[in-house]
Amino acid sequence: MKSRIEQLYLYMEKEAIDAVLITLPKNVYYFSGFLTEPHERFMGLVLIRGEEPFLFLPLLDSEKAQAVSSVTKIYSHRDSENPYEVLQRYLPASISRLGLEKGHLTATSYEAILATVPVKEILDIETQLRDMRMTKSPDEIATIKQAIWVVEESLRRTLPKITVGITELDVVAELEFQTKKLGAQGPSFSTIVLGGQRTGLPHGDPTERPIQGGELLLIDAGVFVSGYVSDLTRTFAVGKINHVLEDMYDTVLQANLQAIETVRPHTPIASVDLAARDIIENKGYGEYFINRVGHGIGLEIHEYPSVHSKAQGVLQEGMVFTIEPGIYNPCIGGVRIEDDVLVTENGVEVLTTFPKELLTLNF
């Protein structure tokens, strides 16, 4: 945590930024080790050039922060107080340049800061924070691997429980139960379980629909472990499926493998998407591949980079992102196969290990 804050102070010096106010809870955690969701209450990490950083928190979070935060100076505000007026007490009398995460602040918070904090110029620091979080440390990678293990082991324990009459929501409940037993803090997004024609919905909501033989079953799940996420999708055959669905599966699998082969440092980000897209389009399914091939993961389920066909920039060692090509035909169903991958010094490490050959579930 200390080295991250030191890096941020160097950035402030370079850009002549007098103070930085970080308000996104995940970024506060990234720099301080303190993770909470303040909801409507105001919270921030404050860095002032030449001074020690401090956390500014609701009073009810103060004791918890003192126990875990690497930032030792902590100030708090009560629910009955105006937090922006309290914050002003701990800031310099005049701030020429203040760095904020404009994309996170609400219009109300932004206006309240401007009304109470003496600032001449506001700078958006989101790109700097994004770039710092983009490449993962060995400790971060180890935590992501643990989150992946939890969701994969939970899936292994859940599959044998899929029997006649079980519904999509039943599978969600069982899978999430298993993840909690294995130590997950919670799901990293709303678990997706879809059967039959409904697998053609990329982000469909699970229902009371029973899972039936002769169809596909798509499960997309992830968890939080120590603040970091995993994201895994596998598509299964429930009993014997027809040749069209088998061909769709084989096409997506080849697209997944080809995209993974493309990953290495200094490769254009867009080329990963294009590698998968070429396979799917050449098999005649191009109109049914309607999503980007992947997205970064870390403290949040969707982080930089966004891996799509028009993406700018190149892959860098330490990036962790998903590769999840799919075919979604709303008339007959869909297939998605999703892995989490790490860009290594010489290529790629596939962090997910759950088998990708078509697995048939028999009632």
Describe the structure.
The protein is 34% helix and 24% strand. With 363 residues, the protein is an alpha+beta fold. Strand 3, helix 3 and strand 4 form a beta-alpha-beta unit. Helix 7 crosses helix 8 and helix 9 runs antiparallel to helix 10. The longest helix is centred in the middle third of the chain and has 21 residues. It is elongated and about 70 Å long. The model has no long low-confidence stretch (mean pLDDT 96).
Walk me through the topology.
Elements: H1 2-14, E1 19-22, H2 25-32, E2 44-48, E3 54-58, H3 59-68, E4 73-77, H4 83-88, E5 95-100, H5 107-116, E6 119-124, H6 126-134, H7 138-158, H8 168-181, E7 186-187, E8 192-195, E9 215-221, E10 223-225, E11 228-229, E12 232-238, H9 243-262, H10 269-282, E13 294-296, E14 303-307, E15 320-323, E16 326-329, E17 333-336, E18 339-343, E19 348-350, E20 360-361
What structural class do helix, strand and pairing data support? Answer: alpha+beta
| Gross geometry | elongated
Order of strands side by side in the largest beta sheet?
A: 4-3-2-1-5-6
Helical element count?
Answer: 10
In N-to-C order, the SSE pattern is HEHEEHEHEHEHHHEEEEEEHHEEEEEEEE
Measured between the Cα atoms of the first and last residue, the distance is 50 Å
Largest sheet: 6 strands, mixed
* Tally of strands: 20
- Which blocks of ≥5 consecutive residues have pLDDT under 50? none
Percent strand: 15-25%
Average residue-wise pLDDT: 96
Q: How much is the radius of gyration in Å?
A: 23 Å
Helix content: 25-40%
